[in-house]
Amino acid sequence: MGYKRKLGAQKTIFFATSNLNKSKEASDILSKYGIKITRVNVKTTEIQADSVEDVATAAVTQASKMGFLPIFVEDAGLFINALKGFPGPFSSYVYRTIGTRGVLRLLEGEKNRLSEFRSSVAFYASSDLKKCFSGTSVGKISEKERGTHGFGFDPIFKPIKGDGRTFAEMTMEEKDGLSHRADALKKFADWYLKFGAENML
Amino acid sequence: MGYKRKLGAQKTIFFATSNLNKSKEASDILSKYGIKITRVNVKTTEIQADSVEDVATAAVTQASKMGFLPIFVEDAGLFINALKGFPGPFSSYVYRTIGTRGVLRLLEGEKNRLSEFRSSVAFYASSDLKKCFSGTSVGKISEKERGTHGFGFDPIFKPIKGDGRTFAEMTMEEKDGLSHRADALKKFADWYLKFGAENML
To answer: Which CATH code for domain A2-200?
Structure first.
C-alpha cells in the first residue's frame, strides 16, 4: 500500500523496444504494480553474446544515451537443450528467418523437447543506478504450432508449470502467470518500488 | 614488382581472430602478396547486425584499442536463399549449435539450394586510415556433408565456379581460388600494397 501511494508522484519509466507485443506485455504486468511505462521506439545495436543478460545490459547502456531516463530494455531467448541452447540469444533473428517451423524441423524425431525461455530486464537510471533482473520459464517444445496469441516462439512452447497448452494458447493474463518475461519484470518491479523509485523521485 | 621490393621494410599486420583455420587461410593468401601477418588471439564482442560488413567494422574498431596496429578482422557468413539468409551473420553460433547437419535438415526436400558465402575484411591503421573489403562466393548447398578440409560450413558448400566439389573437398590452394575470404583478402591486399602500406611505413 505504501508503495502504491507514492505512485501519484512517480514519473514514467521508458521502455526501449521496437516490439509492440513486448511493450503490451510489459505494460500489462507493470501496471499491476502501479508502474507506468512509455515505449521508446528505438533499435539498439545488439551484441552477439551467449547470454541474454549481456545483450540486455549492453543495449540499455546504449539506449540510455538518448536521454530518456530512467529506461529499461528487455531481451529474451529460447534455449533448447537438444540443440545446445540454439536459438538462444539469437532467437529473434532465427524467428525472422527459419521461424517456428524451422525449429520444429530441427527437432523432428527428437524425444528430448526440454527448453527454457530466458528474459533479462536491464534498467538504467544513472551510471550509479543500474541493475539487471533475470527470469526463466522451463518448458517443452510442442510437436506442432498451437495457438494464436503472443508472439515469437510462443506457439511451440509449453511451460512445465502449465496445463499442456502453449503460451500462444493462453490469454495474456495466463501467460503472465508463467512467463520468463513476467518473472523478470516482477523482480524488477519489486526492487523498483522498494529501492529504485525512492531514489528517483 | 615495385610492391614486392617495399616488403623488406614492411612491418607485420595483426590479424585479430581466435580461429586458427581462418588465420592459416589468411596467412596463405596474403603471403602470396608478400604481406606478413601475426595472429592476435582476441575475442571481440560481435554485434548482432544483418551484414558481415557491420560486424567486422565494429569488431576492428574494438580490436584496435588493444594497440596492436595496423590490425584487421575478418567476419564471414553463409546466406541461404531458401532460409531468408539464415544463418547469415550468425553462422559461427549456428555452426556451434545445430551444425551442418541442422542446416541440411532445414533444407530437406528443398530444391532451391542457392546460397552465398560473404566475407568482410575490416582494416584499421588509425582513425584516419580504416577500410572494409567484401568478398563473395556463390554456390549451392550439397545434399550431404562431403570432405574434411577447411572448417565451418565448408563440407556443405559447393561453389558455382567449381567442379561440384565442396570447399571441404578442396586443397587450401583450390579453395583460395574460389572462396569469399580469398576474394575479400585479395581486394584488401591490392589496396594495401598500392595505398595502405606507403602510409604506414
So the answer is: 3.90.950.10
